[in-house]
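[retry 2/3] AcrR family transcriptional regulator: previous attempt timed out, resubmitting with same input.
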Amino acid sequence: MTASKPPAPPTTPPAPTSAPAPTSASASASAPAPTSAPAPTSASAPAPAPAAAATPRNRRSEATRAAILEAARERFAADGYERATIRAIAKDANIDPSMVMRYYGNKEGLFAAAVTIDLRLPDPASLSREEVGRALVTHFFTMWEENDVLTALLRVGATNQDGAERMQGVFREQVLPLAHRFCPDPEQVPARAALVSSQLLGMALTRYVLRFPPAVAMHTEEAVAWLAPTIQRYLTAPYPQ
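[retry 2/3] AcrR family transcriptional regulator: success.
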């Protein structure tokens, strides 16, 4: 006789389940999220700030430089280069002499910055091609004899970079146009003007700065007679073969 199985224990009723948590989709549906402000476009970007105005210190510096240059021009014109002094110029400008040295280094640098040179060359259109050499040399001797500013600038230019650049500018701006007028080849104009300058400045250096006795003793008419044909050739002759 087979034994019967014991009855199964009664089952426990299932526990009630809790309501499902709302999903992110449903949460966003029930409470709309705040929208962020749109990014500014290039059109709405703020304009760049204007350049800063000159500071009081810069304005004082410019005013000081202007006062020094004005006083230097008047003092050089009244006393000449040799007798004018940094101390006298500073006194005229109502500043300490050390300020002049600070801005311009020495008298040579100040002179190069302050001086204005006008060679007062004749109008090239008024010169004949056959006589341009003599006319130019005669004019330069007149300028050298009457204007010690040119001599001072030549002296400064031989020893001071600012003076050299100032002298270069004078000849570049005033002699070069005359060479353009008479030179047979436009490409050679700078070289021709440099050759002309070498003769005129060389004579001025030996006669007025270094004061070689034979150059000083030479009559102006004789010097013109020597130099004029050379200047004429530099300006008008064909390129040497």
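[retry 2/3] AcrR family transcriptional regulator: Residues 57-114 form a domain with the Arc Repressor Mutant, subunit A fold (CATH 1.10.10.60).
[retry 2/3] clearing retry counter.
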